[in-house]
């Protein structure tokens, strides 16, 4: 996998509560690739430190490893202690939601997201100048958080276009109802889910017809379409000057670089590099990293997830069997447990409407429009549902309001 790992914690909804820790990556076919799961009492420093130590033992040392998470203090403290050599970045979506909640404006978060995803230092400065003109407080908030934490341009390592923790959130969504189960049942549910995922994805990878994965091949096709409108001027055998719509880029096929920075930051050719490669009749696959190739995807899912069998057939050592595991010290909150997550401030959309004029955007106390008149067709009620007089059986009144009751002859 590309060395970018998203980590997140989600609540367990069983009898004893707790937190499930999730770490995921993304394979070359843009699919979620689970790495590790863990159970803890809550998202505190000790729980995160224990889980990250177990993760370090499973991953060993990776030089260019990048973690993506939200801005939880325990996550940052655990990573800095257990993985001091790792680049820790923050999720752009969570960071944008914090900006919306803090400054009550959506436009500042959108500009920050554009600055975070750009590959060019020039475009980054342009977006940040726009943010400074729009809201100085939001600009200072983004700078205080550290551009190396949320900006792709200033990140010390490659993020490979993975700017959010969506791959971890997808796992949480798949386990939305399974998190109500006991821990051992939940673990078996996860194992069974991954068993099916690995089998189906391994079969799909073997049936791919191209050297690249289907997702990477589709991106190549879309970028090749732009090459028809580009002007390619060779400088030497490896260096080319690409012109398009008044802009100019320089591509070096030997070093696999481009002045747009997409080629070297993603290890995947940009449209300018594809135009230069077509000029030299080079295979596009040679410009892609192994992460995006079909053989790598097959190897990623080649080891199956095996079933564990019935507990009666397990071979448990005596030192493990003699341990006494107590119930967690947890206290359930009063009331019915919440099934869904709390919506963020930007997701809560309320439309205010006036009951005086029927228009939206204000209420009846601030309404200056004329009162709404119902000019629509009247609703006809069948006669069997209308009031009837018990004296003359007329429709439209009862015997108390009957206009002819005084003339009744007994």
TrEMBL record:
Entries under Gene3D superfamilies matching the protein: Zinc finger, CCHC-type
Q: Which domain of life is it from?
A: Eukaryota
Which residue ranges are recorded for the region named Disordered? Answer: 327-381
Fetch the InterPro entries from UniProt: MULE_transposase_dom, Znf_CCHC, Znf_PMZ, Znf_SWIM
PROSITE patterns, from UniProt? ZF_CCHC, ZF_SWIM
Any idea which UniProt keywords this protein has? Metal-binding, Zinc, Zinc-finger
A Pfam short name:
SWIM
All copies of the CCHC-type domain together span 354-369
Q: Molecular function (GO) terms listed? A: nucleic acid binding; zinc ion binding
Q: What region holds the SWIM-type domain?
A: 249-281
Name-wise, this protein is SWIM-type domain-containing protein
Q: Which organism is it from?
A: Acer negundo (Box elder)
Q: What is the lineage of its organism?
A: Eukaryota, Viridiplantae, Streptophyta, Embryophyta, Tracheophyta
């Amino acid at each position: 996998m590309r060395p970018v790992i998203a980590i997140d914690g989600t609540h367990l909804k069983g009898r004893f509560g707790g937190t499930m820790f999730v770490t995921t990556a993304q394979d070359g076919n843009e699919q979620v690739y689970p790495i590790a799961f863990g159970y803890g009492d809550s998202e505190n420093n000790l729980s995160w430190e224990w889980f990250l130590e177990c993760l370090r033992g499973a991953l060993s040392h990776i030089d260019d490893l990048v973690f993506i998470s939200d801005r939880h203090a325990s996550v940052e403290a655990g990573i800095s202690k257990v993985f001091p050599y790792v680049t820790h970045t923050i999720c752009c979506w969570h960071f944008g939601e914090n900006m919306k909640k803090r400054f009550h404006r959506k436009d500042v978060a959108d500009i920050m997201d554009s600055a975070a995803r750009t590959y060019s230092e020039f475009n980054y400065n342009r977006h940040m100048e726009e943010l400074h003109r729009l809201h100085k407080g939001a600009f200072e908030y983004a700078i205080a958080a550290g551009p190396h934490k949320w900006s792709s341009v200033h990140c010390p390592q490659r993020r490979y276009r993975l700017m959010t923790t969506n791959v971890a959130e997808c796992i949480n969504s798949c386990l939305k109802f399974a998190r109500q189960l006991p821990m051992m049942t939940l673990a078996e549910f996860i194992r069974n889910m991954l068993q099916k995922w690995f089998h189906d994805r391994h079969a799909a990878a073997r049936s791919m017809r191209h050297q690249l994965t289907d997702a990477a091949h589709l991106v190549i096709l879309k970028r090749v379409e732009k090459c028809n409108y580009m002007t390619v001027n060779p400088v030497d055998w490896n260096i080319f000057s690409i012109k398009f719509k008044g802009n100019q880029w320089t591509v070096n096929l030997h070093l696999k670089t481009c002045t747009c920075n997409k080629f070297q930051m993603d290890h995947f050719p940009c449209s300018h590099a594809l135009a230069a490669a077509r000029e030299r009749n080079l295979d596009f696959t040679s410009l892609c990293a192994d992460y995006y190739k079909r053989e790598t995807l097959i190897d990623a899912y080649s080891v199956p997830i095996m079933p564990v069998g019935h507990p009666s057939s397990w071979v448990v050592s005596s030192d493990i069997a003699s341990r006494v595991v107590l119930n967690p010290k947890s206290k359930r909150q009063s009331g019915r447990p919440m099934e869904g997550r709390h919506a963020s401030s930007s997701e809560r959309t309320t439309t205010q409407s006036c009951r005086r004029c029927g228009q939206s955007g204000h209420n009846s106390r601030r309404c200056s429009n004329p009162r709404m008149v119902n000019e629509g067709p009247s609703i006809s009620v069948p006669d069997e549902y209308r009031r009837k007089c018990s004296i003359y059986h007329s429709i439209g009144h009862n015997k108390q309001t009957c206009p002819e009751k005084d003339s009744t002859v007994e």
